[in-house]
Amino acid sequence: MMISQFFVLSQRGDNIVFRDYRAEVPKGSTETFFRKVKFWKEDGNAEAPPIFNVDGVNYFHVKVVGLYFVATTRVNVSPSLVLELLQRIARVIKDYLGVLNEDSFRKNFVLVYELLDEVIDFGYVQTTSTEVLKSYVFNEPILIAPARLQPIDPAAIFTQGAKRMPGTAVTKSVVANDPSGRRREEIFVDIIEKISVTFSSSGYILTSEIDGTIQMKSYLSGNPEIRIALNEDLNIGRGGRSVYDYRSSSGSGVILDDCNFHESVRLDSFDSDRTLSLVPPDGEFPVMNYRMTQEFKPPFHVNTLIEEAGRLKAEVIIKIRAEFPSDIIANTITVQMPLPNYTSRASFELEPGAAGQKTDFKETSKMLEWNLKKIVGGAEHTLRAKLTFSQEFHGNITKEAGPVSMTFTIPMYNVSKLQVKYLQIAKKSSSYNPYRWVRYVTQANSYVARI
């Protein structure tokens, strides 16, 4: 795989980092890219796709905490490989700088360019491992004071209620020395699950799937051996059963369809007691990726009704019910519903006393949008929308509207029931007792309810 250029742009289009490896692409590519992304209008979409071609140049980009990480090339390369490379470069830079933002980039130009020269040589990838790079890159970063940091996802999803994580936990560099001379011994294990669910118009589950990962970030000195114990009733593979044979899988523990492990993980005792042994490399890395189609209880139930309300009018009612415990709080919830093309206006009515909720009708894309700051487990919320049409509709209006889609984040909750039972660290001495943080989060990948 070969790329011609790599650059990082701010949301304003400012060129923060630029490296031209092969001199094959015009120097104005940064301006071409930003203009194309900013004014992208096609099929009603406001955002440019991650890959597009302009004048024979392929542009690949990912957006990380508001910054555009971009690669260009004139040759035909694997899109997924380039996008994965951009994500890994962002991760490596974050491992070194502690936090990704424009300020940290500008204060660490020398270090960032040194990293890029080690990661990519003449357009060819050499390594994206923080552990390997530590042998070649010795500059220490200029750290940004915590008070100047803005809250960024996914760090913010772990700061909830009594289970709040330390403020500096996700903004520390894995290579910088602590100014006080002391190093806080701690390790973070995050179980992150992205769920995909499709509901029928009558509320039944048509498809359901979980894409999960166990992420680890270690700040332990000396790289001691770590043992992670998972559920004892964990099963890999369905033993020939149908993917949707839910009755046969009920009561038989956690069943994963398939999984894979990081190269540092040893599976000597995994079959007998479901424990993973590893010596963690520096930086953030996935210990285990897994996929699951076993039946699970969806965190939200969505009911939608759309019906005529007179000539050139209709009414939409959307109800959301949280199906998780009351001590769990979901945040940053967005509900979207495409409306008929001839919708000219929409007025909204929220339930009495509704707080932290916003509604909007995007006229160009004919999209109804409902944003909720948070939803407490067990709560139910309702939105009523009165639609006005520019022409009379014919036939079934439900065929021209919907489906309803949701995005959300639920900290300290996972639907698969996969759990870390204990996190054991090899002791150097009797007084050695590092901090251990195990955190869970559930996010929507594709959460769709048909009308």
Radius of gyration: 25 Å
Poorly predicted ranges: 147-169, 240-250
Enumerate how many helices there are, as a single number: 7
Oligomeric nature of the chains: single chain
The largest sheet is: 9 strands, mixed
Q: How many individual β-strands?
A: 26
Shape summary: globular
Q: Approximately what portion of the residues adopt beta-strand conformation?
A: 35-45%
How far from one another are the termini?
44 Å
Strand order of the largest sheet: 13-16-9-8-26-24-19-22-21
Structural class: mainly beta
Helicity, as a percent range: 10-25%
Average predicted confidence as pLDDT = 84
Task: Note down, in words, how this protein is organized.
- By secondary structure, the protein is mainly β.
- 13% of the residues lie in helices and 40% in strands.
- The protein is built from seven helices and 26 strands.
- Strands 13-16-9-8-26-24-19-22-21 form a nine-stranded mixed sheet, covered by helices on one side. It has a five-stranded antiparallel sheet with strand order 2-1-5-4-3, with helices on both faces. It has a four-stranded antiparallel sheet with strand order 14-15-10-25.
- A hairpin with a 4-residue loop joins strand 21 (357-362) and strand 22 (367-376).
- It is globular, with a radius of gyration of 25 Å.
- It starts with a strand and ends with a strand.
- Mean pLDDT is 84; it is low at 147-169 and 240-250.
